[in-house]
What does this fold into?
Amino acid sequence: MSHYTLVHGDILYSETLKTLACYPDSWMIIRSGKIEAIESAKPDIDKAEIRDYGNQLILPVFADLHYHSVQYAMRGLGRDKELLPWLHTYTFKEEARFANIEYAERVFKQLLNELWTEGSFNLCTFSSLHLEATLRLMDMYEANEFRAYVGKVNMDSNDPVLVEDTDASFENTKRWIEESRALKYAKPIITPRFAPSCTPSLLAELGKLAEEQQLPVQTHLNENHGEIELVAELFPDYDNYYDVYRKNGLTPVGKTVMAHCIHNTRPELEAMKEDRVLIAHCPASNLNLSSGIMPLREMLDQGFLIGLGSDIGGGDRLFIGHAIVDAIRSANILSMVHDGKVAPVTFPEAYYLATAGGGAFFGKTGTFKPGYSADYIVVDDSCWPATDRYNLSERLEQFIYAGTGEQITERCMRGNLIAKPY
It folds into this structure.
């Protein structure tokens, strides 16, 4: 038997990349966890559950397409360093601590509480290389109904502190996939950290595994000039950085997330377009580590699939509103540098990336179109004195720029209200 829920409030979502759909004082009809329609008058449906949020904003949950769950405790450190020195000075040492499962659980509980607070429920994340910690992280996402792709990191090269034996890395990856197979909401994603941390033999085996198991892949690409030079030195027989992944079977069509993608060559862009790669744009991290500014306007105009990532600990905050703002500001900087010859990015475009754009990787989520999963957050913006003067899109913009997750009063996934995890 179908279960109906009627949700009332001021409803907004991204209709397209450039347009917001705004439904003031309206009702969302949810049938067995999926959106059926949005109507201006209260529907007459017998025995429907009523959730009346008055004039609060009802928005899709956020998608965080790239972050490191095991870097949560080291946010804000090493901002005077570029990527590679930062990794060796802070990051790998912190991730090595996740061999201790008690430490891992303590960090993960705080992380999940903050993700819940900030309204991010469609997630694509790196764990550490540790099997036990990764499985525990997946169990925690699963128990709290986050929709998450979680990767056990693979790295068998180029760091004395955090490194695996090649055979052990591959065998533990197979075991991790098998042991997480029964999970409903938290799913495995093949995760070579980045090409410099993997030997050619490990990359090849991971590519075969991704094909055999029909699994998605996530990794880093073209984040930093020093990184790109290192890849060219370590993999001289490949055409470019992306080619290292592609020729090893690590770019399954429509199932690949590449983080950063700042300094891309034309052949790389053509191959990425052909493979329908989803780019995780991480503007905060890109600026924090002096990596560069991804040409977002150009890539949107060329039709690339793009979402946003907080990229903690390269980034500082999990609230995806900050990523939206940073994406717009970064695009504005490029526009100014090029004397206006490059157009900026609009607020509706950046908001789309944070909801529908990133959400597309997970299926029918991130927007309120019929047939999509009923995944929403409710925002109380009554704390500001003049919201009655603004239309819904202006209220949304104010929340993203000036608000916080503390204004979110309700969180819903698949039609079910989600309580604070811990």
